[in-house]
UniProtKB/TrEMBL annotation:
It comes from the Bacteria. The keyword Iron does not apply. The lineage of its organism: Bacteria, Bacillati, Bacillota, Bacilli, Bacillales. Belongs to the UPF0316 family. Residues 19-75 form the DUF5698 domain. Pfam families: DUF2179, DUF5698. It is found in: Cell membrane. Its main location: membrane. This is UPF0316 protein FCL54_12625. Keywords: Cell membrane, Membrane, Transmembrane, Transmembrane helix. It is a multi-pass membrane protein.
Amino acid sequence: MLDVLLIFLVQIIFVPILTLRTVFMVKNENKKASVVGALEAVVYIFGVSLVLTGEQSIAAMIAYSLGFGIGIYIGGIIETKLAIGYTAYNVNLPSKNQELLDRLRNDGYGVTNYTGEGRDGYRYKMEILTKRSRERELELIIEMYEPKAFIISYEPRKFKGGFLVKSMKKRLKKKQQQEQSSATSA
């Protein structure tokens, strides 16, 4: 019975690690993926050795399957909480909403605004790139100013330059300077 419980627990640990490694690979975070992959291999080998050396019972198979399913669920929760990466939003509006543009820019979002022609006349489109951790905040702001906005979001794999990259570099440089000054004062 202890083996069955261990198989269940190993799956609950293994599958979230597998999920994170996959996410890191998709996001081109290869160094992180390799570290997590090494941990994944250790857990996997431990789990396989339990399965292969133990008695092949229905209970062990059920524990393996349930642990796998629960591990997928837990891995999804962990990935959502980590919110790795960025999301690009295309927001279509019936009229140019300067208040919304100003609010988004003041809150640190990089926004590019376009005018286009739709079926029923001119439309206004905003392109916004944000960290995944700020998605909900962005959606709430848009909803507050433009409840009928048409929104499409997607995850970009690569980007170069632009407002967001510059601001991230500035924040990183400022953080490094703060760390250096606190290290020299200590």
